[in-house]
Amino acid sequence: MDVLQESVIVYGSRRPNSAYIKISKSQDIFSPIFSRSVKRDLVITTDYIFIPASKQEEDVIRRMNSLPHDLKSIGLNVSTGKVVDFRIRDFLCSSPSQNTYPMIYPSNISESIVVHPLERCKKPQWFLGDPEAAKLLVPPGSYVVVKRFSAKEERKRIVAAVWKSSSESAIDNKLNYFHFNGLPLSSKTALGLTKWLNSKFVDSYFRIFSGHTQVNATDLRKMKYPSLEELHELADKDDGWVDNGYFD
Quick one: which H or E segment has residue 162? Predict the structure, then answer.
């Protein structure tokens, strides 16, 4: 029986640091063990421990580390959605009215875009714009939303989509969203960033340092990114360009 669960056993001893770290892996106790040595700076960083178990994974880390920017240097921010639905049930409704705004959940994400309203959805699709809850809304415009949780069976660990609204909107706590100091992104930035996050390259990198299915805002902040100009170029490229052309 297949078990979708990882186990990590850590053993430590005090000794001088080595320039290389030996990484060994096997599929199970009956399979052969494969070992390889990797430069220490590709395994241990200030914030994470990476385990590049193959040359391909080592190349992914090298490529990501070669990028010159983090979110702060390109002027972007990422936060967790402000709305915890079970705490504010009185502000949620199933049909729109004069004083309601779109309410966005992970289930609204489909094929790199946010579909709203979502028909036949169990979740209320509208947020009542009471003055008491106005602080939970984000301004009109374009954002990139990312699922905070994914199933083991999902094809990708990071699932991102563009959300564009002509009105204020509410974002569920089970989503992270990219913004510009609380304000919306340009349409090109949002599209390029979504294509970057949904690439096989970024998914491969994320899986190397994160064995669980939760995508935290902190993890997204720690990653490297292309420049804003490159994200704008990426918006005009085919979806597969990050994996097939960006690093050539």
Answer: strand 160-165
CA distance 108 to 115: 5
Q: What is the average pLDDT across 24-36?
A: 85
Q: What is the pTM of this model?
A: 0.88
Q: Is 61 exposed, middle or buried (0-12, 13-18, 19+ CB in 10 A)?
A: buried
Higher pLDDT, 247 or 168: 168
Does residue 46 have a pLDDT over 80? no
| Separation in Å, CA 118 to CA 17, 109, 110 | 55, 10, 10
Map out the domains of the chain with their CATH numbers. Answer: 72-244 (3.90.220.20)
SS3 of residue 154 by DSSP: coil
Tokens at 37, concatenated = 């040595």
